[in-house]
Design a protein that fits this description.
Chain lengths: ~200, ~200
DNA sequence: ACCTGAACACCGTTCAAGT
DNA sequence: ACCTGAACACCGTTCAAGT
């Protein structure tokens, strides 16, 4: 058996999350899935919170890289938003993993740096660039948390049990709205708010 | 000792969260704080997840009510966004409590109903009203999650240990941006993205 | 340098039995 | 109708001891 290292622990954690979800992740079950005594994990990782923080930053690795698309300014900001969403979606429960961590880590910072830079390049005044960039970030996080929540709900029908469908009489707007969304690709739903948020950028 | 009921359990849970945060909440400690054997809680509440779901809906109670402000259309949508943020901020870790629950509950639905209604009244085409309303919701959730994360970080300096301040040389935009934000009221930061998101609504 | 084994102080949930 | 007490199957974390 190859000896474990930190990277293997992270990879094992992602594999576990893919299969069972973040809520099921425990140090002991992770250790078992890696074929190791659970005490061993604490050699590679300070504690469970540190593991989660590492996963969060891992999620964002490469998101802020240059893409060669040549996108500039507000187009680059839009591109970054799409790349952030893709990164969060690349692992089950990705958005919740990131939302659960308060930490300023390299890849999180690199994303902020790139997003603010894009806003500046779009002509946003220096005093507003952070606001524009962070607003986009908030939107993406909120969107994907909801998106992945829907995936989890679909995966586990039992969670919806006893609740039934939405009462069209009490909530006609929601009822009709959800019907609309069901006919629409997620990408288009995502683009809707993003476009409007970025439209004002650089004017 | 007055007998417990479901409302008292919820109130006790909020009091506990106010003092120790959501991560510290356990059924056993909550029971102790209520002066009751921990098995007792399961008489009032199905399990911990059901308790959390109930807290989440409790958080949103009254948010979608009429305010008598007479705000209509996009103004009403803006008002709802502010009221949602206030509700999330009204309890420690409020945004995370809500984000952790997948459930469609009465007050969540009532908020969506009101927000879509406001978008429609603002002249948004029926096919887009959900998108406009939900986009605002995503933004608010993302914003307040970050906002409350900052409060938690300030409360527990130890979590930031060994990290130090942001490296101005590596992340000049972030460094300058955070300085800008520090001089700005949270309300103004919140309004920035919200205004831009709602500006396109009803055009 | 990496891992095991065992211990410690916790968890959520269930359920007979009490009042 | 509400609560206790005890049990069951788990947790995260630490740390001497092994290789």
């Amino acid at each position: 058996m190859a000896r474990l290292d930190r990277a293997a622990v992270l990879a094992g954690a992602w594999a576990f999350i893919e299969e069972h979800g973040i809520d099921a992740l425990t140090m002991r079950k992770l250790a078992t899935s890696l074929g190791v005594n659970h005490g061993t994990l604490y050699w590679h990782v300070d504690n469970k919170q540190a593991l989660t923080d590492a996963l969060a930053d891992d999620l964002l690795s490469g998101v802020a890289d240059e893409t060669g698309s040549g996108a500039q300014g507000s187009d680059r900001l839009t591109e970054l938003a799409h790349r952030l969403r893709s990164a969060l979606l690349s692992h089950r429960d990705g958005a919740r993993v990131l939302a659960g961590t308060f930490v300023r880590q390299p890849n999180t910072l690199a994303f902020g740096e790139a997003a603010i830079g894009a806003a500046l390049a779009a002509g946003v005044p220096a005093a507003e660039a952070v606001l524009a960039a962070f607003s986009v970030q908030y939107y993406v996080m909120g969107f994907v948390i909801e998106e992945q929540a829907a995936y989890e709900l679909a995966r586990d029908e039992s969670r919806n049990n006893g609740r039934g469908p939405i009462d069209a009489a009490s909530y006609p707007n929601v009822y009709a709205g959800l019907a609309t969304l069901r006919k629409m690709p997620r990408d288009s739903q995502f683009a809707y708010g993003l476009t409007r948020l970025v439209a004002e950028t650089g004017r």
